[in-house]
Structures are given as structure tokens and as C-alpha cells.
């Protein structure tokens, strides 16, 4: 009889441990955003000083979607990512970071599409309003030597306008806060052009 009780206690303990593990794994799945990179994109690990700093310190989580360091000039390239925010999130910040010591970066045609509804949540993703502060915010690192950023019209990817950034040494961040439904999948895309040689850096982050 005593042997049966011991076996019963062991079996019950095993079940409890399994339940606890399931709850832990479920909690991790809920809390952590999921990112799927397009395999055609060439990305490298982002320099840590461009991920966690004075411009991103208010964010508890930061996902690195893209990082480019010291690439040679290239014409507009298409970048595409699928991002899934954790189910508890209601807003995220889409953040583009730029540094270019010799020339500039050009950005155009940003989209942030809810794959459930097909709706693009990005405001003025093609910069056609020609008014940067209407939909975007900027933050410049304190160690930046010089920052020139604006909406231009000479060489857009499409339509009439695009964003151009020449930030020396430090980094300028261009961001927009977006309302999301946690757990859904979002398709993020944009066109990026590199107009000069190193030193240059670009990062794309999603913060919450």
C-alpha cells in the first residue's frame, strides 16, 4: 500500500512539473516578438551602441530587423520582413537609424501592413506630405558630429519625395509609433539607397 502511495506521489509530481514547464514556455511565447527575415536580404549583427542608447533607453524590448555596416554604394534596394509583436503589445515604434560620414542614405516607400486585414498602418510612408514632423519623430545621438536630414525631391524611388540622411559619426533615428494587435503578423518593407563609401551604418529596429 505504501509503495502505491509513493508511486502516486511521484506521478503527481511529474505532472505538476510538466504543467509548470508548459506555462513557462507559453509565457515566453506570449512575451517575445517573432521576426522572420527575408532570406534574400544581407544583414549583419547591429553594433550594440546603435541598439541600446539614449534614443532607445525608454524601450523595454528592441528587435533588430536589419543592420548594414560599411557597405559600398548601391542603388535603391527592396527590403522585406515579417514581424509578429508579442500578444500583450498594443503599440510599437518602427525605428530607422542612419550614419554616413562621406555621403548619405536615401529611404522611400515604407510600408507596415497588417497581414490579417491587408491595411498599411504606416503614415506617410512615401514622404509625399513633404512634412517630416507630421508623422515621424527624430532623435540624434549626443556624440553626433553633424546631422543633415530632410525630405528631398531630386532622386526618389517613386512618386515625388523621399527621405535623405547624412549623419556624421553618431546616428540619427527616424521613428514612427504604430498601433498593433499583439500576435498578428506584419509585413514591413522599404527601399533603401546607399550613396557613398564607408564609414556608414544603417539599422532598422522595432521597439516597445
From TrEMBL:
Q: Where are the transmembrane segments?
A: 12-36
Highest taxon of the lineage: Eukaryota
The answer to whether keyword Membrane applies is yes
Keywords attached to this Swiss-Prot or TrEMBL record, sorted alphabetically, are:
Membrane, Transmembrane, Transmembrane helix
**Name recorded for this polypeptide:** Uncharacterized protein
Task: State the organism of origin.
Answer: Adineta ricciae (Rotifer)
Amino acid at each position: 500500500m505504501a509503495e502505491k502511495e509513493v508511486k502516486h506521489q511521484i506521478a503527481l509530481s511529474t505532472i505538476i512539473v510538466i504543467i509548470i514547464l508548459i506555462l513557462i514556455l507559453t509565457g515566453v511565447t506570449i512575451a517575445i516578438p517573432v521576426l522572420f527575415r527575408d532570406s534574400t536580404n544581407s544583414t549583419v549583427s547591429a553594433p550594440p551602441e546603435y541598439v541600446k542608447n539614449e534614443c532607445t533607453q525608454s524601450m523595454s524590448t528592441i528587435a533588430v530587423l536589419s543592420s548594414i555596416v560599411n557597405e559600398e554604394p548601391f542603388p535603391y534596394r527592396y527590403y522585406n520582413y515579417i514581424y509578429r509583436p508579442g500578444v500583450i503589445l498594443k503599440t510599437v515604434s518602427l525605428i530607422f537609424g542612419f550614419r554616413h560620414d562621406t555621403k548619405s542614405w536615401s529611404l522611400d516607400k515604407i510600408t507596415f501592413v497588417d497581414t490579417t486585414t491587408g491595411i498599411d498602418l504606416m503614415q506617410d510612408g512615401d514622404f509625399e506630405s513633404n512634412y517630416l514632423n507630421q508623422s515621424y519623430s527624430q532623435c540624434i545621438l549626443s556624440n553626433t558630429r553633424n546631422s543633415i536630414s530632410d525630405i528631398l525631391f531630386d532622386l526618389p524611388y517613386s512618386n515625388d519625395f523621399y527621405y535623405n540622411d547624412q549623419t556624421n559619426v553618431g546616428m540619427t533615428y527616424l521613428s514612427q509609433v504604430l498601433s498593433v494587435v499583439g500576435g498578428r503578423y506584419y509585413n514591413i518593407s522599404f527601399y533603401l539607397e546607399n550613396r557613398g563609401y564607408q564609414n556608414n551604418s544603417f539599422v532598422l529596429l522595432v521597439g516597445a
